[in-house]
Write a structure and sequence with these properties.
Blueprint: H1 2-23, E1 27-32, E2 37-42, E3 45-50, E4 63-65, E5 69-76, E6 82-91, E7 94-98, E8 114-116, H2 118-131, E9 136-141
Parallel strand pairs: 1-9, 7-8
Antiparallel strand pairs: 1-2, 2-3, 4-9, 5-6, 6-7
Length: about 140
């Protein structure tokens, strides 16, 4: 009897533990440097936005990352205090953030960050904050 109750309790714990992870919506941002696009999958929603990544002489690091930190507004100390609204930092000083240079979106133009239209940057920032760093993956590929 004790063994049956213990087994039932373990089954319920596993069931709730597994479904609890299923409740957390995962957020995946795929940045394709060759097409200068970012495809965001959040729950059942999919967004595709134009971006600007590193121009000639600079790099946007390839790989799979988790967000390291966010900043509603950040100013780049390295590049003349340039504004970086709705920043999601994914590797050191590299971030996905809004830009005022919206006419350059769709072609390489940055020092390595992933630039987005300010509206899209605000939306992505909100998604990351809602989903959480542990449930967010940023993948940068060619």
């Amino acid at each position: 009897m004790k063994k049956t109750v213990l087994m039932a309790a373990m089954f319920v714990a596993m069931l709730f533990g597994a479904s609890g992870q299923g409740w957390a919506a995962s957020l995946v941002a795929n940045i394709d440097v060759s097409s200068q696009t970012m495809t965001v999958r959040y729950g059942a929603s999919v967004y595709r936005w134009s971006v600007s990544t590193a121009r000639k002489g600079y790099i946007t690091p390839r790989g799979s990352y988790r967000p390291q930190r966010t900043a509603r507004m950040w100013y780049s100390r390295k590049y003349d205090m340039s504004p970086m609204p709705h920043s999601v930092f994914f590797r050191g000083g590299y971030a996905i953030h809004g830009t005022g240079a919206v006419r350059q979106l769709g072609r390489p133009a940055s020092h390595g960050c992933v630039r987005l239209h300010p509206t899209n940057a605000a939306a992505f920032y909100a998604m990351v904050r809602q989903a959480g760093f542990g449930n967010t993956r940023i993948v940068v590929t060619n």
